[in-house]
Amino acid sequence: MPFANYKLPQDSLTNAQKEDLIHKTTELMVGLFGEAVRPTTMVLVEEIKDGGYGRADEVFVMPDDYRVRE
Fold it and tell me: What share of the chain is helix, strand, coil (3-state, %, to 5)?
């Protein structure tokens, strides 16, 4: 069973964009492993809250300009 796990900043994608990401990832796995993996492919999109991750010793907070508004 192929498994893809995306960790993204909270509110960085709309629900429609997350759905598209899931469909495209499934198609990628099918392209790599064949049609037989479609029913068992798992795609997990996790949203990480501000302050829940960092880089180079700096806690990350996503600017409001980059947040989606549905």
Answer: 40, 25, 35
User: How many degrees, rounded to 5, is the angle at CA 20 between CA 19 and CA 22?
Assistant: 65
Cα 63 to Cα 49, 54, 70: the distances in Å are 12, 14, 17
H/E segment holding residue 7: strand 3-9
Mean pLDDT of 30-34: 97
Q: Is the dihedral of CA 15, 17, 20, 25 positive or negative?
A: negative
- Residues 60, 8: contact at Cβ < 8 Å? no
Q: How far is the C-alpha of 46 from the C-alpha of 55, rounded, in Å?
A: 18
Cα(68)–Cα(13) distance, rounded to whole angstroms? 6
Q: Give the pLDDT of residue 64.
A: 84
